[in-house]
Task: inverse folding
């Protein structure tokens, strides 16, 4: 049975095919910015915990056919690489940005480019950080030939690369430099999800079934009435609920165990825990509601080769209207990082947007 979900899988790809003008989804490397004049300033990509630069995780190409302004549309995720910033069910160390353009725009040709031979990306009119590929307003004070997003990446590059070549007549742009802080690069290819036909309960039926099971435990004297339940009994019941969510999650993913992304705009996330945000904040720009768009799966962690990064799943919610600004600036969206190791209720309004 085919579902409404598109699944994303990692595949190796020629680096030049992951450039901005080919509009592909990808993981790792440097971001392939869509809109090139209003690339986010470094402050917008700092971790809300440690205040160090977040690193590009992935981008998802998600045009909306019913809106000309969204003929090209890309969503970008950035994450902090400091392990101490990963708190249970909190997303202060993760950033999500949305960019979109009509088919006729200032950067790209009306028709798609040919892919029969290597070609260069469309260059950005603003300088980019040589380390991470984000906006780089700062220059090396000595040679003024390389740019950085800030002092953190400038110091890193000085130790690893730039010190040896600073002042040289020409400085070669080594695309592989600083790869130790960037994630390995892959293309994300998608295909429809197909699962075996099974008896499917609605959300209401699932809630009813859980309440019936709870009432049965009360009748059997295994737990007390809700007002009489001890903290330890509530913890036990919460753990049972979490186990059921996780089991359901594993059963669904088992059909395609290599999936790293689930795309289902205006659908619902595949949660792995009962701990979900109590509400999704409205869009800060137009104040309209946000809807679920896609989620990043834990399987992606296996390919990142970074022990500091961790999550259960990352659920991304975007403006339902996909609103825009007159100058097509990058717009912040909402992400919720769900984990499976705690039943403590998160504080969703404190998570990053």
Result:
């Amino acid at each position: 049975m085919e579902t409404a979900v598109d699944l994303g899988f990692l595949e190796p790809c020629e680096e030049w095919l992951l450039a901005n003008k080919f509009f592909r989804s990808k993981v790792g490397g440097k971001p392939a910015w869509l809109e090139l004049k209003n690339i986010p300033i470094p402050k917008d990509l700092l971790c809300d915990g440690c205040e160090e630069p977040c690193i590009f995780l992935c981008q998802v190409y998600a045009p909306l056919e019913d809106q000309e302004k969204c003929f090209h549309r890309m969503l970008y995720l950035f994450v902090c690489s400091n392990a101490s910033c990963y708190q249970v069910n909190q997303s202060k160390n993760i950033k999500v940005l949305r960019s979109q353009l009509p088919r006729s725009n200032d950067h790209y040709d009306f028709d798609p480019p040919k892919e029969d031979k290597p070609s260069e990306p469309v260059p950005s009119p603003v300088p980019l950080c040589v380390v991470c590929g984000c906006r780089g307003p700062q220059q090396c004070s000595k040679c003024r030939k390389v740019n950085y997003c800030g002092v953190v990446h400038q110091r890193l590059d000085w130790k690893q690369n730039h010190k040896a070549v600073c002042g040289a007549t020409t400085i070669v742009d080594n695309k592989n430099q600083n790869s130790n802080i960037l994630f390995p690069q892959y293309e994300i290819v998608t295909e429809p999800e197909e699962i075996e036909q099974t008896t499917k309960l609605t959300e209401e039926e699932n809630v009813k079934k859980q309440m019936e099971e709870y009432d049965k435990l009360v009748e059997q004297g295994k737990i007390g009435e809700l007002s009489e339940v001890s903290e330890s009994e509530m913890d036990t019941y919460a753990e049972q609920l979490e186990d059921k969510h996780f089991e359901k999650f594993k059963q669904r993913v088992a059909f395609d165990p290599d999936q790293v992304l689930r795309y289902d705009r205006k659908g619902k996330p595949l949660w792995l825990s009962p701990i979900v945000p109590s509400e999704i904040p409205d869009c800060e720009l137009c104040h309209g509601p946000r809807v679920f768009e896609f989620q990043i799966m834990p399987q992606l962690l296996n390919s990142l080769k970074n022990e500091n990064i961790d999550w259960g799943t990352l659920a991304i919610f975007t403006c339902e209207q996909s609103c825009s600004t007159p100058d097509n600036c990058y717009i912040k969206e909402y992400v919720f990082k769900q984990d499976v190791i705690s039943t403590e209720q998160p504080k969703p309004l404190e998570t990053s947007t």
Summary: Residues 222-230, 342-352 have pLDDT under 50 and may be disordered. The chain has four helices and 13 strands. The longest strand covers residues 2-11.
